[in-house]
Amino acid sequence: MANDINIRRDKTKARIRGRVSGTPERPRLTIYKSLKRIYVQAVDDTQGITLAAASSLEKDLRGSLKNGANIEAAKAVGASIAARLKEKGITSVVFDRNGYVYHGRVKALADSAREAGLQF
């Protein structure tokens, strides 16, 4: 059963990545969620580099979060990545949900990043 879910997500992920690409001016904001953590990074696909990253594993967030994999953690990570991108002068991104359903932690992270000033 778990393999069926991963296969479905991989197919969705490949379909999304065929349409979504990041540039230096508008990087791709991609997420990964595990059972214990949530991770996000801004990627410039033209050069193949990560411009900024944030996760619930970081020391400053880990101390303030009770759990690293809930909606509150996703909101904190979304605000953190938005702050780091704004420091670099990036205000617009392309959102890549990485095959995950836009619900729960994914939606919370996206909404938090939007509230912090990112446009997508």
UniProtKB/TrEMBL annotation:
A GO-annotated cellular component: ribosome
Is Cell division set as a keyword in this record? Answer: no
Q: Does the keyword Ribonucleoprotein apply?
A: yes
Which InterPro entries does this chain map to?
Answer: Ribosomal_L18 (IPR057268), Ribosomal_uL18_bac-type (IPR004389), Ribosomal_uL18_bac/plant/anim (IPR005484)
A Pfam family this protein belongs to? Answer: Ribosomal_L18p
Q: Which domain of life is it from?
A: Bacteria
The entry's keywords: Ribonucleoprotein, Ribosomal protein, RNA-binding, rRNA-binding
What CDD domains would the database entry show?
Answer: Ribosomal_L18_L5e
The protein's job, in short, is: This is one of the proteins that bind and probably mediate the attachment of the 5S RNA into the large ribosomal subunit, where it forms part of the central protuberance.
Tell me the protein family, please.
Answer: Belongs to the universal ribosomal protein uL18 family.
Q: How does it assemble?
A: Part of the 50S ribosomal subunit; part of the 5S rRNA/L5/L18/L25 subcomplex. Contacts the 5S and 23S rRNAs.
Q: Which HAMAP family match?
A: Ribosomal_uL18_B (MF_01337_B)
Q: Which NCBIfam families match?
A: L18_bact
Q: What is this protein called?
A: Large ribosomal subunit protein uL18
What's the gene?
Answer: rplR
